[in-house]
Write a structure and sequence with these properties.
7 helices; Rossmann fold; globular
Amino acid sequence: MTRLLLARHGQTDDNLAGDVFQGFRDTPLNDTGRRQAEVLAAQAEADFPVDAVWSSDLKRARETAEIVGAALDLEPKLDPRLREGNRGAWEGRRFAEVERAEPELYRTLRSTPEQMRFPGGESLAEQQQRVLAALSDIRAAGGQCALVVCHLGSIRVALCSRDPRGLSGFFAHEVENTGVVEF
């Protein structure tokens, strides 16, 4: 069975701000994010028997995967199903702004995320379904170890599939930029 390592992309300016819904916005890495990707590449080269690199097609994940792939002499394979969740009308907005403008929906997100549908976007269950389908296909592609570069929300929904709390445990799973978790 193929070992799957899920890696969060490197830092973006939105991550630096710490309170912006990025979603499908195609934000690039910042300089810190590129350095983090280089460290991830060195870590993968030294510690993981990676024989495939997969990535979300969004720029921040793709660029991270390209830096890692170059170090490992592997061409990243892109899969849009690995994208961050579609946060719809909330994309590009700060958490506090959304909380003020739509307090009930924001409260639902924080207290019962499994019941949340982002206005004009998708639910966490829909995101989980597409991410798990992508991970299943990556595993079926074979190989010893695949590094999958994606997004915090995508990693969270994957981990929630093995969490007894299900999607209600969404916010319990924290992964720093270029952090790696085994799935």
